[in-house]
């Protein structure tokens, strides 16, 4: 700690990107650091550039949207915080399987809106998915989310979708239902997460020795950022609002067990050699998908491979992904 004097951390936080709460949970590792809040990425990058702080913790979606600031200041992403709940939840008395056909559900993530429509099978347009702003609600305000919860109790809406991490911070009491990418856990349904959910980054000046913060940062989350960044950089802009991205790392044993349960020969063959053995290496799992406007058509790609080959594999995966996307009209009516 003393050799690099990294004792000041700035935090840019919000309800939906709760960096401050995550830092509080890491307090045992950060007792020697001075923590201060910043009001915007521009302010945080400015004082980081000027040496008033040594590190800046910021939500990945803001970093991506304002990435030019980092370039202009000569700053870089050096690490990421562990992701605890990289998915959204449906706050509702009904789970996603049992929402009535004309249920009113508030959701601002376009890809999840379309996934909700997808679950309706042959009657996708019957579910009434609206934005929070239609009810004058700010989904990044705990007070407003409690008001949305009251709308459920009053029968004005049937549910709303928020990041899992927002639920406890808002003081909500209504039932919540995880929206997971595992079709088996979701009884055949699948919600590939919206990009950047629960992904918080550590920014520093060029040359910062990232190994000095290894004890409280997470390599899997950093890989999730690298994968998401690569996908966004090589996916046409018009798909960015309707893309779902799932990344996680898993031991080979559970992957094989799941593949054998559903007789997924592709995954089994990718994990086993011709003699039926495996190398025991940690594997990455990537799912990327986009949906058309009414959720009736999904285009996606999946990959499983050794984590130590991730940087090479993502390059070839994106070549395949761009070939798949050619000619797909995301707003066409079926």
Structure write-up:
The protein has 334 residues and is of the alpha/beta class. The chain has three domains: 8-83 and 198-216, Periplasmic binding protein-like II (D-Maltodextrin-Binding Protein, domain 2); 88-179, D-Maltodextrin-Binding Protein, domain 2, CATH 3.40.190; 231-325, no CATH class. The chain contains eleven helices and 13 strands. Helix 8 (219-234) runs parallel beside helix 11 (310-325) and helix 9 runs antiparallel to helix 10 (265-271). The relative contact order is 0.14.
Question: How is the secondary structure organized here?
Answer:
Layout: E1 8-11, H1 19-25, E2 34-37, H2 41-49, E3 55-59, H3 60-65, H4 67-73, E4 75-80, E5 88-92, E6 104-106, H5 110-118, E7 128-130, H6 142-153, E8 159-163, H7 166-170, E9 176-179, E10 200-205, H8 219-234, E11 243-250, H9 252-261, H10 265-271, E12 283-291, E13 298-306, H11 310-325
Strand content: 15-25%
The description of the largest β-sheet is:
5 strands, mixed
Q: Helix proportion of residues, in percent? A: 25-40%
The geometry reads as globular
The poorly predicted ranges are none
CATH first level of the largest domain: which class?
Alpha Beta
Q: What is the number of helical segments per DSSP (H or I, 4+ residues)?
A: 11
Cα gyration radius (Å): 21 Å
C-alpha end-to-end distance = 59 Å
Q: Widest sheet: strand order? A: 2-1-3-10-4
User: How many domain regions?
Assistant: 3
- Give me the CATH superfamily of the largest domain: Periplasmic binding protein-like II
Number of strands: 13
- Average pLDDT metric: 89
CATH architecture of the largest domain: 3-Layer(aba) Sandwich
Structural class, by secondary structure, is: alpha/beta
